[in-house]
């Protein structure tokens, strides 16, 4: 009887997700070249080699959707933009901790190649697409506008998923878009678009995608979390040392042509080192935009990211 | 009697609020009724995204639905009457209808954007597709259900075809047409919300508002938005029923 009770209890826990024994459930964004370290780590089996068995639990079209996956308890590790991650934690819809950065920079504002828009101030009264509210690109675009003294109300900002942006620009549905690479690069190589500002121009070295883990997962499986971060650091190292092979992997995972990928990668800085100062700026700006409400910014950031974690990952 | 009707819903709300208070239902999965009320207030006062307030989202959505709905009825009702009247026409058009009808309106979204751009006309087209077929099929069924003896009688009385069409067929089919219009508006309203998920140029719309609330991770505003959609759907249904009973009296 006791045995039966234990057996039932075990299965109950298993189904409710408390007893965790399976592979690490990992998620990333679709066709976002920022996620290259994740793809390299999967493709080169770096996660396995470092001691973390992973399975792909989801491929998402934008950060907010991936954060909903965390909220649902369906993901342990996610490659995602720092802005949606911050928004989800601040609004308490997901409990995650950021352990490493993935990339800095890597987005661009693109307009019609032969159109009249030559610079950011020309976008007044025009329609510009962002991948979602509270995404890194939404943030960067508003920052770019304020840099030129343009208020967001003067531009019609709409939401489109990046795969739809190029078609919308080509058919004049929109006058411009801001997206993660390789979509801006693709607009250039197809002859449709022209870059008027890279995210480097808008904010040099701005943090972009991060490696986020579920809080409970980190608590219960610190060893596996360390293994994931180790593999992540090695993957970035691999991209630096084996550029050609990294391009091939990016082509494989995005399904895009090599020319676009090569161009896209010149706009992305891969780095595992977290930027605490950068995150503070995100929190302050997202609060100003009324997306979130954080009173004590330093305390929030200290809970949100662990820049020291990467040092503890050595075997 | 009225109190009895409210008893179960109020009891459920109280249980829900209680379970939320003791954290059995985590707020990030399903906000409590009170949180949802506050979310509704935020939607109306602050707006989602901030600055884009609820009443404008409602107006834009109603406008899109009205546009698509009117277009669908204006085409489907005359076409349905003709198809019910002429067996030849019915035979010729039916195969096309049967092939296109089972395609979910949402599957048309990529084409709708290509043909009509983002915003009013593409959303209205999706709604048009949702409304068109129920109205058409019910109109045809309405005509076919008219007792042939009535038509024969009109013919023996030397009625002209034109008179038979307007004095016998159309009035006879009205109840069935209303059924189609009611089904159609229900489908159209549901389709609208999903059609707005893909993005709208004007920045307004209830479906768009819900997606934005998801982007900004506000489940309270998501549920509040869903309730607004449900309430408006209910009001539309009541309005159509009222129109229906008025027309029945008229006949």
Structure explained in plain terms:
The complex is a heterodimer of chains A (315) and B (251). Chain A is 46% helix and 19% strand. Chain A has 315 residues and is an alpha/beta fold. In chain A, the strands form three sheets. Chain A has a five-stranded mixed β-sheet with strand order 2-1-3-11-4, with helices on both faces. Chain B has ten helices and no strands. The interface between A and B is medium-sized, with 36 and 25 residues.
Question: Could you outline the blueprint of secondary structure elements for this entry?
Answer:
The complex is a heterodimer of chains A (315) and B (251).
Chain A: H1 2-16, E1 24-29, H2 36-43, H3 46-50, E2 54-60, H4 63-71, E3 77-81, H5 82-90, E4 96-101, E5 103-105, E6 107-112, E7 127-130, H6 136-147, E8 156-159, H7 162-170, E9 176-180, H8 183-189, E10 193-198, H9 199-202, E11 209-214, H10 215-220, H11 222-241, H12 243-254, H13 258-265, E12 268-270, H14 276-288, H15 297-304
Parallel strand pairs in A: 1-2, 1-3, 7-8, 7-9
Antiparallel strand pairs in A: 3-11, 4-11, 5-12, 6-9, 6-10
Helix pairs in contact in A: 2-11, 2-12, 4-5, 5-14, 7-8, 8-13, 11-12, 12-13, 14-15
Chain B: H1 2-21, H2 33-45, H3 54-85, H4 87-100, H5 109-116, H6 120-144, H7 148-156, H8 161-197, H9 206-215, H10 219-250
For the structure shown, list the relevant keywords:
heterodimer, A: 315 residues, alpha/beta, D-Maltodextrin-Binding Protein, domain 2, 2 domains, five-stranded mixed sheet, globular, B: 251 residues, mainly alpha, MetI-like fold, elongated
Number of strands of chain B: 0
- The class by helix and strand makeup of chain B works out as mainly alpha
| Rg of chain B | 23 Å
For the record, what is the CATH homologous superfamily label of the largest domain in chain A? Periplasmic binding protein-like II
The CATH superfamily of the largest domain in chain B appears as: MetI-like
Strand order of the largest sheet of chain A: 2-1-3-11-4
Helix content of chain A: 40-55%
How far the N terminus sits from the C terminus of chain A, by CA atoms, comes to 44 Å
Low-pLDDT runs of 5+ residues of chain A are 13-19
Question: What would you call the structural class of chain A?
Answer: alpha/beta
Number of helices of chain A: 15
Helix content of chain B: over 70%
Architecture of the largest domain in chain A, according to CATH? 3-Layer(aba) Sandwich
Main sheet properties of chain A: 5 strands, mixed
């Amino acid at each position: 009887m006791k045995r039966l009770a234990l057996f039932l209890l075990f299965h109950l826990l298993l189904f409710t997700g408390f007893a965790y024994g399976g592979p690490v459930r990992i998620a990333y964004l679709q066709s976002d070249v920022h996620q290259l370290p994740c793809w390299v780590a999967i493709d080169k089996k770096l996660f396995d080699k470092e001691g973390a068995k992973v399975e792909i639990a989801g491929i998402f079209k934008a950060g907010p959707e991936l954060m909903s996956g965390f909220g649902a308890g369906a993901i342990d590790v996610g490659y995602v933009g720092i802005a949606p991650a911050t928004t989800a934690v601040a609004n308490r819809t997901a409990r995650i901790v950021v352990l490493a950065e993935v990339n800095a920079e890597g987005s661009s504002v693109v307009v019609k190649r032969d159109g009249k828009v030559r610079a950011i101030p020309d976008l007044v009264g025009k329609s510009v697409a962002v991948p979602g509210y509270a995404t890194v690109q939404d943030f960067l675009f508003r920052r770019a506008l304020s840099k030129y003294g343009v208020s967001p109300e003067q531009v019609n900002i709409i939401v489109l998923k990046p795969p739809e942006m190029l078609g919308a620009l080509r058919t004049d549905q929109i006058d411009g878009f801001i997206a993660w690479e390789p979509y801006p690069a693709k607009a250039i190589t197809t002859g449709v678009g022209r870059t008027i500002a890279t995210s480097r121009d808008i904010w040099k070295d701005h943090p972009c995608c991060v490696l986020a883990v579920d809080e409970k997962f980190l608590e219960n499986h610190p060893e596996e979390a360390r293994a994931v971060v180790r593999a992540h650091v090695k993957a970035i190292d691999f991209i630096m040392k084996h550029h050609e092979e990294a391009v091939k992997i990016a082509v494989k995972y995005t399904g895009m042509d090599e020319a676009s990928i090569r161009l896209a990668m010149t706009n992305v800085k891969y780095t595992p080192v977290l930027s605490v100062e950068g995150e503070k700026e995100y929190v302050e700006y997202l609060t100003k935009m009324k997306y979130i409400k954080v009173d004590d910014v330093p305390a929030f950031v200290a809970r949100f990211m662990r820049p020291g974690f990467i040092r503890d990952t050595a075997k | 009697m009225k109190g009895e009707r409210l008893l179960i819903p109020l009891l459920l709300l109280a249980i829900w609020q209680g379970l939320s208070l003791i954290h059995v239902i985590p707020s990030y999965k399903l906000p409590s009724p009170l949180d949802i009320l506050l979310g509704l207030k935020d939607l109306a006062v602050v707006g989602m995204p901030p600055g884009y307030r609820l009443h404008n989202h409602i107006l834009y959505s109603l406008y899109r639905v009205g546009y698509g709905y009117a277009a669908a009825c204006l085409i489907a009702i005359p076409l349905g009457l003709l198809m019910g009247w002429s067996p030849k026409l019915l035979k010729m058009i039916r195969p096309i209808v049967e092939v296109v009808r089972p395609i979910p309106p949402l599957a048309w979204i990529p084409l709708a954007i290509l043909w009509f751009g983002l915003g009013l006309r593409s959303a209205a087209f999706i709604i048009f597709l949702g409304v068109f077929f129920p109205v058409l099929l019910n109109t045809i069924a309405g005509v076919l259900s008219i007792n042939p003896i009535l038509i024969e009688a009109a013919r023996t009385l030397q009625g002209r075809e034109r008179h038979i069409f307007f004095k016998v067929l159309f009035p006879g089919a009205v109840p069935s047409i209303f059924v189609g219009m009611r089904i159609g508006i229900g489908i159209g309203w549901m389709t609208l919300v999903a059609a707005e998920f893909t993005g709208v140029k004007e920045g307004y719309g209830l479906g768009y508002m819900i997606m934005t609330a998801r982007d900004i991770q506000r489940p309270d505003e998501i549920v509040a938005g869903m309730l607004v959609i449900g309430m408006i759907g209910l009001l539309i249904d009541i309005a159509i029923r009222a129109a229906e009973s008025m027309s029945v009296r008229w006949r």
